[in-house]
């Protein structure tokens, strides 16, 4: 669906694994076509430049162009961590579902908690399809650990995530916002043993 003017972006609500009715968002972040729940996830824009963010964090992006967010990985001085659904569709799914369960999109870096947080989140995780445990919020954040949402993902995705996130993380103590690129490529269901990513490379 195309926008009617150059100052209007298209926003779709995500719920229960499918797109709900589209919502329209003006450049000041005001919804013109209905209300959005605090725990929804919203998609800003269309096509390859679309981004998904938790609804309660969407206001942190309204002053920045999507192209600049993707290129600079920041907006108004806040570091942006991009989860690339083209490469990690199951991790992107876990991230979206975590937001919808009420977990935050703005996290605080704390590498010192990584080992303990991962043990709390994934220590008793059952891997039914040969994959690995993904947790959100990440173990290396202050919000990680007990209460994190966990889901089985392909081992390749965890490898890609480690390299990608490491280069995007801010210094300890700083906050950052998590968003998902190419939300149209988020896995629609749980991992059952098949890696479905359209881009299975890592960088």
UniProtKB/TrEMBL annotation:
Residues 119-179 form the Deoxyribonuclease NucA/NucB domain. It comes from Actinophytocola oryzae. This is Deoxyribonuclease NucA/NucB. InterPro entries: DNase_NucA_NucB. Residues 133-152 are annotated as: Disordered. It comes from the Bacteria.
């Amino acid at each position: 669906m195309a926008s009617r003017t150059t100052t209007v972006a298209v926003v779709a609500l995500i719920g229960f694994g499918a797109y709900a009715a589209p919502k329209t968002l003006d450049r000041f972040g005001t919804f013109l076509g209905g209300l959005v729940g605090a725990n929804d996830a919203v998609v800003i824009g269309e096509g390859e430049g679309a981004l998904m963010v938790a609804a309660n964090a969407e206001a942190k992006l309204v002053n920045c162009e999507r192209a600049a967010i993707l290129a600079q990985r920041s907006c108004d001085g806040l570091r942006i961590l991009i989860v690339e659904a083209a490469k990690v569709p199951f991790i992107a799914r876990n991230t979206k579902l975590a937001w919808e369960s009420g977990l935050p999109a703005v996290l605080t870096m704390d590498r010192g908690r990584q080992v303990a947080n991962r043990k709390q989140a994934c220590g008793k995780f059952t891997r039914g399809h040969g994959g690995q445990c993904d947790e959100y919020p990440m173990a290396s954040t202050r919000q990680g650990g007990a209460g994190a949402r966990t889901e089985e993902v392909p081992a390749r995705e965890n490898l890609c995530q480690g390299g990608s996130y490491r280069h995007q993380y801010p210094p300890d103590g700083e906050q950052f916002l998590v968003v998902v690129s190419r939300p149209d490529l988020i896995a629609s269901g749980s991992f059952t043993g098949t890696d479905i990513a359209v881009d299975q490379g890592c960088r």
